[in-house]
Specification:
26% of the residues lie in helices and 24% in strands. It has 12 helices and 16 strands.
Length: 400
């Protein structure tokens, strides 16, 4: 098995919740295959590690976990294609929980390598927001060839949407009665969740057979059982409250996506134990829900104690600028360590992939970034990008 040893790291930002200190000085990381197997300070390194290993001397550099963008449409809005030709929004039906994002992802899109170039080694990819219930979200590595081999977890969650996007979507052929107002959208969502609960109960009966099978209801069973969460697209404060209301009614885990006005209700969200995938916050105020968009809201929300993940909503903001988002958050009052958490361990925990990514510790995937300078400096990129134990610099360089 291939062994890779990173030595003489000035600082290792482990971002682990389990071990202290969170930042390790003068450290090393040992990788076997795709996995971190050991790490510590150089004075404690086993001399046998230095033999039969490929060595990266990181003297003067810092090591970070691979960055994670927790809400994107990566590979669904392909470069060079206009919005109406994208593969993110299925407008032939209103409610499509059974759709799988993976079937629309083009892993050959240049944006994957641009993500790696900036240190984003994992991305959560979601269907768009035209449908009140849009489909299954997945998490992937940004390094690879075939999307099936890049999957971290599928599904991570089911995508729901509230507000202007589903209100203003047109072209549905199966239902022209509902989903024209916020009331209608909430009604459609509740009805499907209720029918799914009834369907789940009926499955336990002996007389259930294939003629009773319904793929849409099947898709919602893991959500109703608490195995995955509901990612609710919601910008306005009232829409956020609606998402929470619906999730509490059906006993499902709620994660807020975007949360543009979350800073207005941060105290309420903390009490509700809400997690937020916050962003984009570097774009134009192109619709009514974005009127109150404010970059300073990131620090206000994080300071309130809400677990926060910064996200680009690629391609709204290109994914390769995720670390710039974090840097701007720091410039506007966010604690630097919290900013690092917001693109590493926080998104991993919120999206339930923290068993593999989000921190540097033994047993985790070897997704590691080596930076000579602060990653939040505009224009700074990693000296080394390691994804699943592979040094991928040459892979990136082929087209970047």
């Amino acid at each position: 098995m291939k062994i890779l040893l990173i030595i003489n790291c000035k600082l290792i930002y482990s971002m682990s919740r389990k071990f202290k200190p969170e930042v390790l000085s003068d450290g090393y990381i040992k990788i076997e295959g795709k996995t971190i197997v050991d790490m510590g300070q150089m004075h404690s390194i086993n001399s046998s590690h230095l033999y039969d290993s490929e060595i990266i001397d990181a003297k003067g550099c810092d090591a970070y976990p691979g960055f994670i963008d927790s809400h994107t449409h990566l590979g669904m809005f392909t470069n060079g294609e206009s919005y109406e030709y994208s593969d993110a929004n299925e407008t032939s039906a209103v409610l499509t929980p059974n759709l799988r994002a993976i079937d629309s992802v083009n892993s050959f899109d240049t944006s994957f390598k641009e993500a790696l170039h900036s240190g984003i080694t994992s991305a959560v990819i979601s269907p768009g927001s035209s449908n009140p219930i849009a489909g299954k979200i997945l998490a992937v590595k940004t390094y690879g060839h075939r999307i099936d081999d890049m999957v971290i977890k599928d599904p991570v969650a089911i995508k729901f949407s509230l507000g202007e996007n589903p209100k203003n979507s047109s072209g549905y052929i199966d239902d022209t009665r509902n989903c024209k107002t916020r009331m209608g959208i909430a009604c459609c969502i509740r009805e499907m969740l209720f029918k799914s609960k009834v369907y789940l109960k009926s499955k336990s009966k002996k007389n259930f057979d294939y003629n009773d099978y319904d793929d849409k209801y099947e898709a919602l069973i893991p959500l109703l059982k608490g195995e995955i969460s509901a990612h609710f697209h919601a910008h306005r404060a009232d829409d956020i409250f609606t998402a929470i209301r619906i999730c509490k009614e059906f006993g499902i885990k709620c994660v807020i996506v975007h949360g543009t006005e979350a800073y207005k209700i941060a105290g309420d969200l903390f009490k509700e134990n809400m997690d937020i995938l916050l962003g984009p916050l570097i774009c134009d105020r192109s619709k009514p829900e974005l009127i109150n968009m404010n970059i300073k809201s990131i620090s206000e929300i994080a300071k309130s104690g809400i677990k926060t993940s910064i996200t680009t909503d690629h391609p709204v903001t290109p994914i390769q600028y995720l670390n710039i988002y974090a840097g701007l958050a720091v410039a506007n009052g966010m604690d630097r360590m919290e900013a690092i958490r917001s693109i590493t361990i926080n998104p991993a925990e919120i999206c339930a992939v923290d068993d593999r990514v989000g921190s540097l510790e033994a047993g985790k995937d070897a997704d590691i970034l080596i930076f000579e300078k602060d990653p939040f400096i505009i224009g700074n990129t990693p000296k080394f990008v390691i994804c699943s134990g592979e040094i991928v610099n040459n892979f990136i360089a082929k087209t970047i």
